[in-house]
Write a structure and sequence with these properties.
The structure is a homodimer.
Chain A: E1 3-4, E2 6-9, H1 14-19, H2 26-29, H3 33-38, E3 43-48, H4 51-57, H5 63-73, E4 78-83, H6 96-109, E5 113-116, H7 124-136, E6 139-145, H8 154-166, E7 171-176, H9 183-197, E8 202-207, H10 214-223, E9 228-231, H11 245-251, E10 257-258, H12 263-276, H13 294-297, H14 301-313, H15 320-333, H16 343-357, E11 363-364, H17 365-371, H18 384-394, H19 411-419, H20 428-436, H21 441-447, H22 459-466, E12 478-484, E13 487-493
Parallel strand pairs in A: 1-10, 2-3, 2-9, 3-4, 4-5, 5-6, 6-7, 7-8, 8-9
Antiparallel strand pairs in A: 11-12, 12-13
């Protein structure tokens, strides 16, 4: 008997986030839901990540309504979301009460599986969210962000899995957002987790396909005992996206592993999305092949293009090589954070400043916060000299507690502020939307009644929307506060 | 100590044959040769297949000169070619003397490794070529064309390897031209060959990447003992092409296997070819993602589009589904030939005729030849009823001998005929060019002195050249002789 490998398809969330800047209209997903729901997936990732931001920023669509619609259209299959721990779907730390409220509302509106991660792998930033998920009775998945550095050993990831198990997660996700997870590492980590945490703890592996090696990594993860893997139906796969679902199914034929997926239904969805994809050509990723340089540079592609555009804006496009050499030094000084939103932008921008003005002559507010522990704990010690400078620039002390412990209850104020907005519907869901996107929510509430846009249908609207501040896969147009000789300046860095 | 895995890069031959219709100009390959030659490859495939045809048909370039140039530019690395056994690089069976002469001349002009295959896996069609290679002292590689059918068991492929070993080949190639080789089959076949033929017999695995699973198959083949694998540098990889070289190298990190490739040099070549590729956009394959339907239909993509265009020409485009269902029946009747040039075209065209006019109401000359053994032996018994009809249509008897045994020495006549052509240079190489391409060679000899074309540089010439008869990856514009009620008609089927 072959061992059953379960599959999560990310076509309704991460696939279009990675390949078409998170722009796919709900209208374009609805027709495929019946096929997807009957195809035999363990879950369908369909919410969270950048979709919430994209819905209100670009699509004039209520993300909570999207969630309810998915729940209705996918009655047989678990819905799944990606949640940035204490940041929820926004870009700052929220107080525990807000985190709990968000999770409760997501569950009530139809969410089944919560994949919770923290950009620094600081498990304290996952505590509140995971506890809240457990309280709703839904599936709490604790996430390990995979990264490569001198301090990120196989043992370190296994230890993190054990800490997540102690937090009573229902499963562990090994999340490889940059396609850095090579086959042997995939095998060793999954094997190690299974040995240390027991075979009954579900291990779910998420890989992007950017480097071209990760379908092999999924094979090795499966051989090591992985229970669930993430893929995307082929017409929205590969490049910076994910490995094709059909290839995974076929790959396992004759091995000791099998899926329960119905390829006939998947082929229908494949054809359908193949027809949808070209309509979003303005948003499509230009990369369709593989990019293996990241193994050498350790710098994700999105971060590279970000830094390039920052340098060009300053007329210093020729400094790219120096910046690429500076990134590992900055990352080391910061204690080797994984390079994922927002740490990738924070480290990248600091590297740009270091090259342009000299090492740490200027420091962004975010970088000093990172150095002083306000994002949480990194896996390695930080450079004491740079920490000292961060104290000067940031005019703050270093903290070692869980960052959210410093936050005061804020729900009441959020409710009061939201209530003042035109178009606010009075529901907790709207308060949460406002809490996460205070700049964008007011306009959205006001215009919500006009109904959702389909940027794949109307090229004129699409054109206007490309000019927006957030670029999709990297949704974080981060405002930096830069101190130069004690004078603070605001610098906005938007993804290229 | 990790076991050394050797690599053949196909970027100078099969990569551009598969992705840009074999059109890459020699001029565009020359600048990369020094990097490639120093990168540590076991061999560089750079000649044979469709390149010979393309050189004289589209590029006004002498393929023999191309070979000599490669030999000069690649002094440290084996050159490698693909040879269609008794068909050489043409589309009919040649008498053994011509085969021997071709091999001898290829060796003299610089070829080191001869990968010899037969579309039907009839080893008798490899005998003359392999013997000739052995005589030159060069590397004789016997090839197994991988295919899937009810009769193609793992044992059958292993048996074929043993028969090739008996023919004293220097290595075995497992050739997966349609990306059908799944990981478990790759493992089982390579393991079986190593067990049966001894570990010292080199096994070389060639996969296309069309279905998205074959990098995993290469991993499994390596685990089973494969010695050499084929890849292509990433900027000319994937889609109907091959797995990316860089991904293979990175995939093996930390495993018990390693390559001796220098990625820094490969990145230089990658950047270089990334710049060349867009210049050939008129010839580029439209497929960049994966195509897994072939696992279900067993019909390679090129064959599908071929049949579709035949049906459309007849105003019967709506019959595609029937034709797709007819293909497996025709293939079964013919004894399950692998579907590769020319058998794919022969089976496909017969399926089209069967659907349009009723089963075997009409038979192409090629199909009756296939049924009567004139292409060689297939792996399964043929349908006796269809064989009987083939005798009627073809007005020939069935043969069971090696087809080339029926051929009389022909070198003298070829020499005499070639000598009459304007521009013939008097060399045996020119006689061979004429022998393989009697329709194309006269024009080429006449215009050769004008020098090679670069279709990537001159869009106007490129445009004109797209209209030519042979479409690149499928170079065989096959002339069929169709008998309808005893009346013979010529039908030319050119790849779509």
């Amino acid at each position: 008997m072959a061992r059953l490998i379960e599959v999560t398809d990310v076509i309704l969330r991460d696939a279009h986030q990675s390949l078409m800047a998170t722009r796919m209209a709900m209208e374009d997903m609805v027709p495929a839901c019946e096929w997807l729901d009957n195809a035999g997936y363990w879950s369908l990732e369909c919410w969270g990540g950048a979709t919430f931001d994209s819905c209100i920023r670009f699509l004039n669509e209520d993300p909570w309504e999207r969630l309810r619609t998915f729940k209705k259209l996918l009655p047989k299959t678990r819905t799944q979301m990606l949640l940035r721990g204490q940041n929820l779907l926004g870009y700052r730390h929220y107080e525990d009460g807000v985190v709990a409220r968000f999770v409760e509302k997501a569950a009530t509106n139809g969410m089944d599986v919560f994949r919770v991660f923290d950009a620094l792998n600081d498990t304290r930033n996952l505590e509140a969210a995971l506890k809240a998920v457990k309280k709703t009775g839904k599936h709490a998945q604790g996430t390990i962000c995979y990264t490569v550095s001198p301090v990120h050993t196989v043992e370190k990831f296994i230890d993190m899995a054990q800490r997540l198990q102690d937090m009573e997660v229902d499963s562990i996700c090994l999340k490889d957002m940059a396609a850095l997870l090579k086959p042997q590492a995939a095998y060793d980590i999954v094997k190690g987790i299974k040995e240390k945490c027991g075979d009954q703890l579900l291990v779910h592996v998420h890989c992007h396909s950017t480097t071209g090696v990760t379908l092999v990594s999924l094979m090795k993860a499966i051989e090591a005992g992985a229970d669930i893997v993430d893929t995307a139906i082929s017409s929205l796969s590969l490049g910076p996206g994910h490995n094709p679902t059909e290839s995974l199914v076929e790959m396992l034929e004759g091995t000791g592993y099998t899926t329960r997926l119905d390829l006939d239904l998947i082929y229908k969805a494949r054809e359908y999305f193949a027809g949808i994809r070209p309509r979003y050509k303005e948003f499509l990723s230009e990369v369709t092949g593989v990019e293996t340089e990241i193994f050498k540079s350790q710098i994700p592609g999105g971060m590279l293009s970000n830094m390039e555009s920052q340098l060009k804006q300053q007329g210093q496009g020729d400094k790219m090589k120096e910046v690429m050499e500076e990134v590992p030094r900055v990352r080391k000084a910061a204690g080797y954070p994984p390079l994922v939103t927002p740490s990738s932008q924070i480290v990248g921008t600091q590297a740009v400043f270091n090259v342009m003005m000299g090492p740490y002559k200027v420091m962004t507010g975010e970088f000093s916060d990172l150095m002083l522990g306000y994002y949480g704990k990194t896996d390695d010690e930080k450079d004491p000299g740079v920490v000292a400078k961060a104290k000067e620039f940031g005019k703050k002390e270093e903290i070692t507690c869980r960052p959210a412990d410093l936050l005061k209850p804020e729900w009441g104020k959020l409710e009061t502020d939201a209530a003042k907005l035109e178009g606010f519907n009075g529901a907790d869901e709207d308060v949460l939307t406002f809490a996460m996107f205070p700049q964008v929510a007011p306009k959205f509430f006001k215009e919500r009644s006009k109904g959702p846009l389909n940027l794949g249908k109307d090229p004129v609207v699409a054109k206007a929307a490309t000019g927006g501040p957030a670029g999709g896969a990297l949704t974080s147009a981060v405002e930096y506060e830069v101190s130069i000789n004690g004078h603070k300046q605001k610098v906005t860095v938007a993804p290229a």
